[in-house]
Structure formats: C-alpha cells, structure tokens
C-alpha cells in the first residue's frame, strides 16, 4: 500500500522553487492568480512525481497512490490537460473512475446536473478536516449565563475547558476568523451587551475589542472576505434589522444596509459572495424567510424561504450548501434540518436530529456538521451529535460538561494542544433542567 512518504523529495523542492520563481519573475496572472500559481507548481511536481507513478504502476499500486491525491481539488485545466492525458492513468480503470469523479465535481460546482453525484473525502479540502471546535457561553438550568468555554480535541476525541471569557454571555454571537475566536454581544444576566472580546490561542487570553453600536443578544455573525458582520438580534423591547460590520485591522464597527426584516435569534453564514440571514423572530412570530446581503451593492435581497418557520436555529456551510438546524417554531423546539443549495436555489429536508434542539450551536468540522447543546422543550442539553452527509444521518458523538443553550459554536484553525486546559474537567456538570 502506498503512503504519503513515497512522494519524492524533489517534488516538494519543486513546489517551493516554483513559488519563489514565480514571485521573482512576477509573471502576469489572470483573475484567478492563485489558481495559476497552483497550476505552475502542480506541473513541476507532476514531472518529478511521474517516475514514481511508473514504479507504482509496475508494482500494481497505481490506484493506491492516486487515492492519496485529492484530484477534484486540482484546477480543471491541469486535470484535463495533464493528468487525463497520462497513458498509465488512462489504462487503469480505477484511476479513470477517480478522474471521472474529479471532472463531475467541477461540473457540479458549475451548476451542471450530474446524476447521482456524491461528495467524498477527496472533494473535501484538507484544511476542513483540522481545527478546534469551540463552544462559548450560553446558559443552563441555573439561569446564569456562562463565561466558560469548552473545546473539542479531534486527536483525543474529547472536550476540555479552555480559558474563560471576561464577561458572561448567553445568546452570544461567535465566529472564528484568522485563527482567532470572536465573541460578540449577548446578555450577561443583568443587561444586554454590545462588547466584543477575542481569544488568541497563542496567548491563551481573551482580549476586549471595540464594542458594537447596538447592544443586543441573539445576533448572528458571518465573515466574508475578512470583515465580520453582526446581524439582527434583539433586546427586551425590539427585534433588530440592524447590521454592523467590524474591520479587524482598524478595530472599528460601522453600519451597513439593514435587513428587510427584523430578526432576533437569527442564523447566518457566508456562502460564495453573499452573507445569508436565515429565519429568526420578528417580534411577533418565528420566520421561514431568508435574505442575503451583497457587500458590493450594500443591499439585502430576499431568497427562497425555508419549509419551516424557526428562530434560535443554527446555520453552517458544508460542501457549498447552507444547512439550518433545529431552532424554535415560536415555542416548540425543532428536530428538523433543511439544506439550501445556492446553485439550484432549492431547499430540501435532510435527516432529523436525534432530539429537538432550540438555541443550538452548530459548526462544520471534518466534513460533518456538529450540533452542540440546546433545549429540547424539557431540559437544557449537554449532548453533541454530528451529521454525516454521505449517509444522511445524525448520531450522538459525546457531550460537553455544561448543559447549554444559546451558546456560540465555531471552529478555530489551531491545534488543540495550543489551548490551555484550565482543568475543571467533565465532573463540573451544571443542572440541566
């Protein structure tokens, strides 16, 4: 069986050399400059890798080593211009199947109909299989909001407590950008918050940053091309349509176009070139409506609504689709899950959660969607379940120590070993009722 160690050292050398040479020559690039650089490097690597492919071919292990390469993630021009023309690839039925999978992936991304197309590990960027899942703040049966955070270690397949926030926060907006975690707004048990704090895994500290203009809880955060958008939310009197944008470099908030509809307890995610606002409550009822923000036009546009009204739902992205999970239909927690494909502008139901979860936090990690905590109508939850799109199934995968609803959940691109375990452990469980 072939392994990653079989790749020749010259290939790695050429990849680095190719980058340096292109930077030094400053050759013209097209609008997809990064892809052009990628093609240049891929060609150089392929030349050195070719001799190794011949050895694998002679040993009958060509397919084994080809499986190590995520062909669908290579530029289509390189796939069809170089890989597809390799005689030893063309002569191997399994390798041709892998090439077909890669071609179908690119067709699928370009909105072409590909019958029976399915995502696989080879269509998932490796960076999506790494990171630390953060569960931040929220509240449990005791009523007081938490300042604690819990982190999921992939390697250990376990949760541990990380350094606490400066403020208690329930119904807090949480997002990870640039390897740091941001917690925005919420309620501390006494008042609504406009403050923001940032966790840096390298210092293991939460640092206060600039505050929003509007204090609110039940907001959603999304990041598109760098800035962070704080969307909707509510206080004791108002559901907001307000949207603020935070510039990380200048540490400043500014207002952008408000949504068409007030949305408290809204879910949000950035997908392709837009920021989506999904569901929420307008002060009268939970909403099934969805709108998206175009930063170039500074405008919100209505898109096709969900099949279910919901607020306090979780929203995340997986394989280019938007998933909305759980939430409340006014007062009842939901177990239903819907998926929106922007290529077809269609919603469809997928497998339901194992239990209803209102106020659930969700995030995508390792090609799966994780749902953390929430309230099932009777009690606050500490269970965690994960959705596998390949088999269309949710299954319980563990639990956090604190039973939480209204927590913020995000995946940070860092190592679990970087984050200091403050040692409270799973014995510190709060009453879940």
Overview of the molecule:
By secondary structure, this protein is an alpha+beta fold. The protein has 2 domains: 4-123, no CATH class; 126-418, Neuraminidase (6 Propeller). Helix content is 17%, strand content 29%. The chain has helices at residues 9-25, 33-58, 62-66, 76-81, 87-90, 93-109, and strands at residues 132-136, 149-153, 158-162, 173-177, 180-184, 196-200, 205-209, 220-223, 228-231, 243-247, 252-255, 267-271, 274-278, 290-294, 299-303, 314-318, 321-325, 328-329, 332-333, 337-341, 346-350, 361-365, 368-372, 383-388, 393-399, 408-412. Helix 1 packs antiparallel against helix 2 (33-58). 41% of the residues are buried.
Based on the model shown, name its key terms.
433 residues; alpha+beta; Neuraminidase; 2 domains; four-stranded antiparallel β-sheet; 26 strands; 29% strand; globular; disordered N terminus
Number of strands: 26
Query: How much of the residues is beta strand, in percent?
Result: 25-35%
Quick one: CATH superfamily of the largest domain? Kelch-type beta propeller
Give the strand line-up of the largest sheet.
Answer: 3-2-1-26
- The secondary structure category is alpha+beta
Head-to-tail CA distance between termini: 52 Å
Region (Disordered): 1-34
InterPro entries: Gal_Oxase/kelch_b-propeller, Kelch-typ_b-propeller, Kelch_1, NRP-like
Keywords: Kelch repeat
Protein name: Kelch like family member 8
């Amino acid at each position: 069986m072939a392994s990653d160690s079989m790749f020749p050292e010259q290939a790695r050398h050429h990849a680095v050399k190719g980058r340096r040479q292109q930077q030094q020559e400053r050759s013209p690039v097209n609008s997809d400059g990064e892809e052009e650089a990628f093609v240049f490097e891929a060609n150089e690597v392929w030349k050195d890798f070719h001799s190794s492919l011949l050895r694998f071919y002679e040993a009958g292990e060509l397919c084994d080593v080809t499986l190590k390469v995520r062909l669908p993630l290579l530029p289509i021009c390189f796939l069809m211009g170089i890989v597809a023309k390799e005689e030893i690839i063309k002569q191997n039925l399994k390798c041709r199947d892998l090439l077909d999978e890669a071609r179908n992936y690119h067709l699928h991304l370009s909105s072409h109909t590909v019958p029976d197309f399915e995502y696989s590990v080879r269509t998932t960027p490796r960076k999506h299989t790494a990171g630390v899942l953060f569960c931040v703040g929220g509240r449990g049966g005791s009523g007081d909001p938490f300042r604690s955070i819990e982190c999921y270690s992939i390697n250990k397949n376990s949760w541990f407590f990380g350094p606490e926030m400066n403020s208690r926060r329930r119904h807090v907006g949480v997002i990870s950008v640039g390897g740091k975690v941001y917690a925005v707004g919420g309620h501390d048990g006494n008042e609504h918050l406009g403050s923001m704090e940032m966790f840096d895994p390298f210092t293991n500290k939460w640092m206060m940053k600039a505050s929003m203009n509007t204090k609110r809880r039940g907001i959603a955060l999304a990041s598109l091309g760098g800035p962070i958008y704080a969307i909707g939310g509510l206080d004791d009197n108002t559901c907001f349509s307000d949207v603020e944008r935070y510039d990380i470099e200048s540490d400043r908030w500014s207002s952008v176009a408000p949504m068409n509809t007030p949305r408290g307890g809204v879910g949000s995610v950035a997908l392709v070139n837009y920021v989506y606002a999904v569901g929420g409550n307008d002060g009268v009822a939970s909403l099934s409506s969805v709108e998206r923000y175009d930063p170039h036009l500074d405008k919100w546009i209505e898109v096709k609504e969900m099949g279910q009204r919901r607020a306090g739902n979780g929203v995340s992205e997986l394989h280019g689709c938007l998933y909305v999970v759980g939430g409340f239909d006014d007062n009842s927690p939901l177990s239903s899950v819907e998926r929106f494909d922007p290529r077809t502008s269609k919603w469809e139901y997928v497998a339901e959660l194992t239990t209803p979860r209102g106020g659930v936090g969700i995030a995508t990690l390792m090609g799966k969607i994780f749902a953390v905590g929430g309230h099932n109508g009777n009690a606050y939850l500490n269970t965690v379940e994960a959705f596998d799109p390949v088999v269309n199934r949710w299954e319980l995968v563990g639990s956090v120590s604190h039973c939480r609803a209204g927590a913020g959940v995000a995946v940070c691109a860092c190592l679990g070993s970087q984050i200091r375990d403050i040692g409270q452990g799973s014995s510190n469980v709060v009453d879940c009722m």
